[in-house]
Amino acid sequence: MKESRRFEVVGFDIDETFTPSISWQMMTKGMGASVDELIRLYEALKQGKMSLTAAQDALIRVWQASGNARKSFLTKLFMRHQIYPDSLPTVQYLQKKGYRVVIISGGVDLYVKTIARRLGVADSFPNTKLLWEGDNLIGMEYELDQAGKKLRQFKAYLKRVGGSRDKSVFVGDSSNDRAVMEYTGHGVLVKTPAYEAEMEKVAWKVVDRVGELRKIL
Ligand SMILES: [Mg+2]
């Protein structure tokens, strides 16, 4: 009798897992807008000093003021954004071995879709929907509870593909990956620059780079 596969689904975060940076900061800087302003708005939102609508609108204005809040500009930015050299070979290795690979990111939809396509991953879920008027960025729908959203998206994905939590692995680096990692019981923590020691408590394995997954899966 053929032994059944230990794992079937491998989920991934993007920022600081597949790439060396945080996409919100990278895209803000790439547009030539202020990262300090981005951080200030995020902190104000998190601390309840600003409503979600006000923070979203303010960030859109910060981006628009750069003159580069355009789909064409951002697509090019995301196409040339640095991905770690072992990211694509790792995804290809997993797909070749028959794992279903899915990406669940706290980034914006255009970014997540572009990076997923570059990595050859068909299934990807973003945190934020960007709103366009032609080529111009005019709004966004962001969700502050990134961890909760990632978990909901992962559960919905498993339901869609008939996967089970026990046969799933989730690879990530920060607190917004925590809920999914705990849910699967098989979280792989990538020790990145922003690595949070707290996360080791919920990790099943700890790696320095995603390429090490070859030794695990
Ligand atoms: Mg991350």
Your description of this structure?
The protein has 217 residues and is of the alpha/beta class. It has a domain at 9-20 and 82-216: Rossmann fold, CATH 3.40.50.1000. 42% of the residues lie in helices and 16% in strands. It contains nine helices and eight strands. It has helices at 23-31, 35-46, 52-65, 71-80, 87-96, 109-118, 146-161, 178-184, 213-216; strands at residues 9-12, 100-104, 123-125, 129-133, 136-141, 168-172, 187-190, 205-207. It has a six-stranded parallel sheet, with helices on both faces. It has a two-stranded antiparallel ribbon with strand order 4-5. Helix 2 (35-46) runs antiparallel to helix 3, helix 4 (71-80) runs parallel beside helix 6 and helix 7 packs parallel to helix 8. The longest helix is centred in the C-terminal third of the chain and has 16 residues, at 146-161. It is globular and about 50 Å long. The model has no long low-confidence stretch (mean pLDDT 95). Magnesium ion is lined by residues 13, 15-17, 172-174.
